[in-house]
Predict the 3D structure of the following.
Amino acid sequence: MNTETAKKSVLVAVGVIENTDGEIFICRRGASQHQAHKWEFPGGKVEAGETVAQALARELEEEVGIRVTDCRPFMRIEHDYGDKQVTLDIHKVTAFSGEPHGLEGQPSRWVPVSELHSYDFPAANSPIVDKLQTETGN
Ligand SMILES: Nc1nc2c([nH]c(=O)n2[C@@H]2O[C@H](COP(=O)(O)OP(=O)(O)OP(=O)(O)O)[C@@H](O)[C@H]2O)c(=O)[nH]1
Ligand SMILES: [Mg+2]
């Protein structure tokens, strides 16, 4: 096996949180994080023994302080950054309790789907933004 095929992908649970106005909640990554300063959909690495849904619920509680009450699979993306290979397992979060806010000091905001393209997301996220815009006709 060469080094390319041996590279291990990091599984990441990602939440596209939607409010009743159809806006999406996004956060800005910190200076010390991979893909620093880019905007993201909150989430994080799936830990050993966790399902993606469990990881998503844990990460959204830790990072933005909400409890997920309903979500559905949205899409899955494999991306190789060169320094890191990720598998994003993205869920649309359609019901939750609490009001999301950046619990780790990260800037955050609600954004209409039609404005998502003006934010600088990691390269892996382009298909997410495209699919959201196609779905809402924006
Ligand atoms: N949360 C999140 N991660 C993303 C997105 N897009 C994307 O490429 N990633 C990548 O997924 C990887 C893991 O996410 P993360 O850094 O949030 O993981 P984590 O919350 O467990 O963070 P930690 O390493 O600070 O403990 C990172 O390499 C990040 O660059 C996205 O929209 N949201
Ligand atoms: Mg995270």
